[in-house]
Design a protein that fits this description.
Blueprint: H1 2-61, H2 63-74, H3 107-123, H4 133-153, H5 157-181, H6 188-213, H7 218-224, H8 227-239, H9 271-280, H10 282-302, H11 315-334, H12 346-365, H13 371-399, H14 402-443
Helix pairs in contact: 1-5, 1-6, 1-8, 3-5, 3-14, 4-5, 4-7, 4-8, 5-14, 6-11, 6-13, 10-12, 10-13, 10-14, 11-13, 12-13, 13-14
Pfam family, one: CLN3
Membrane topology: Multi-pass membrane protein
Biased composition (Basic and acidic residues): 1-10
Length: 444
Amino acid sequence: MLKMDDRSTEIESSSNLSEEQNDITDIPSGSRSREGKSRRNLIGFWLLGLCNNFGYVVMLSAAHDILHEEKNSDQGNQTSNNASLTLDISGSFNSTDGLECNPLSTGTVLLADILPTLIIKITAPFYMQRIPYSIRMAICVLFAFASFFIVAFSQALWFSLLGVVFASISSGFGEITLLSYSAHFDKDVVSTWSSGTGGAGVFGALSYAGFTSAGVTPRNTVLIMNVIPFTLGVSYWFILEHPKGVTEREPLLETERTEGAEKLPVDPLTIKVKLIITKSLLKFMLPLFFVYFAEYFINQGLHELIYWNRIWLTPSEQYRWYQVDYQIGVFISRSSVNIFPIKKIWILAVLQNVNLVILLCEAYFHFLPSVWIMFLIVLYEGLLGGACYVNAFYRISQEVPPKHREFSMGVTSMADSCGIALAGATALPTHNALCTYWRNKIRS
């Protein structure tokens, strides 16, 4: 009897051990499945960040060329106020070397590139949850295609600016959509999204500068960029592993999430609750506002007025490569949050505004001895801006409760757009004042 009991116990133990071994062997398979899905989502969000911001960056890189082309078309009729002003860096003037002023600042293009985005971001958190994600992304892709075609075939400044507006609508709609959508995925997609947006800056500015430097016309360069909206659509519909039902149902009422991500509780947000949440987000929004105001005032108000004559780059080429240099800094810092997180992001806002003061003085006095020093300052400017952006959104993904995270991501993205819009509005009179100053100096 004892032997039979022992035998039974042995069989049972063997059976249990076999089941445990099966469980153990099953774990890596499931783990691999989750890892593959997670990897696809990380890659997908990186590509979405890249493609979503690409058109916006290209339009800003092309801003000087868009305005310069319009100025050239009018130059036969205007010979005084709109003629190129020239300032040798040493302070002497002549007709071939010096400061060249477009009749309009590149801040004009910046305003066309940011105001639609700003309007979308201010209003979208309060109504966009009613629009399915798939429809939102279709809108983004269509507007992106339209923007490149319009700018490529435009024969008038106002039509070119309409193309810039379309790029802005695509980028703004895409950013608030995808940042909100990231709340349904693992937290790491926020860092890959941010890295992708930084990559958009580098590849967008570099591709535009590279093609035009190689002899491709600005119009044909913009036309080539139509590969980007196509990639945007492929990334969203074919690379991402979408949470079941989220793309078709109201996001804030959706409770399902992908494997490995937290479930979002059902908790529809009232207007009052949204305003309370927005107030709690000011610690992220204010630094973003001031950082972006300073850097875009520099980029679109001062860069075109700071250049060196008689070097290997023309003034237009210097402007393009400033954009590339800045975007390299943004890309590096936006890709570094997992290695070097920063909690006190307000410090970045202070440092960026110090940059603004230095470069405003440079635009007025021209005291920097070399273009290489300017390139270093611009790189540093990009590092500060990118670090503020990625650390703000990364902290939201870590600190804000899951039920409020989707709304928080969307509404915080409004802060940088407000700063950019104010920078564009301020850049216009500043550009005109500096041009008037040098014009009067020439005449005196």
